[in-house]
Amino acid sequence: MNEKITVLGKEPVNPIGTCFDSAATIFIRLSPSEFSDAKLCHGIGISNYPGQPDEPIAHAWIEATDKSYGRVALDPIWMVMQPASVYRKNLQVSLVIEYSYRFFLKKWREKKYPGPYDKRILAMTIEGKKSKENNYGS
After folding, report:
1. N or C terminus: fewer CB in 10 A for the chain?
2. Is 64 in contact with 38 (CB distance < 8 Å)?
3. How far is residue 65's CA from residue 81's CA, in Å, rounded to a whole number?
4. What percent of the chain is helix, strand and coil (3-state, nearest 5)?
5. pLDDT tens-digit profile of 59-105?
6. What does the alpha-carbon distance between residue 37 and residue 28 come to, in Å, rounded to a whole number?
7. How buried is 114 (Cβ within 10 angstroms: 0-12 exposed, 13-18 middle, 19+ buried)?
8. Pick from 32, 33, 38: nearest CA to 64
9. Distances (CA, A) of 69 to 23, 27, 53, 96
């Protein structure tokens, strides 16, 4: 496939398929005092990528309150920020698990990987779709 994938006119900043790692890396670099209400979100949405449109996918992103813009979502692949409600609507989110800074760090230490931790979301990842038996999750 030679189709260039863009979101809001931007090409991906991080490789497609690395959203859980990329979101975790960005999230742990946020200042908890500055972004006290920030959440790392793991969820299931609907793909709009060429070659897999309308397929359920697992995805990770960050949400926080911005003083100027209100509640916003930051996509870790495209590094695009938009209102969280618009982001969730565009992704057609059917399930989302939100992790606080402390709880996410605890889960990462416990599980030894940056997620997803919920079995329903894990089943929608590339690895989860390939695996017939899933031993991960919460």
Report:
1. N
2. yes
3. 12
4. 30, 25, 45
5. 999 999 988 999 999 999 989 999 999 999 999 999 999 999 999 99
6. 13
7. buried
8. 38
9. 20, 19, 30, 22
Long-range contacts of 117-125 (CB under 8 A, 24+ apart): 117/42, 118/42, 120/44, 120/95, 121/42, 121/43, 121/44, 121/58, 121/95, 121/97, 122/58, 123/58, 124/44, 124/56, 124/57, 124/58, 125/20, 125/58
What type of residue sits at position 51?
Answer: G
Tokens 């997620």 sit at which residue? 115
C-beta of residue 124 within 8 angstroms of C-beta of residue 56: yes
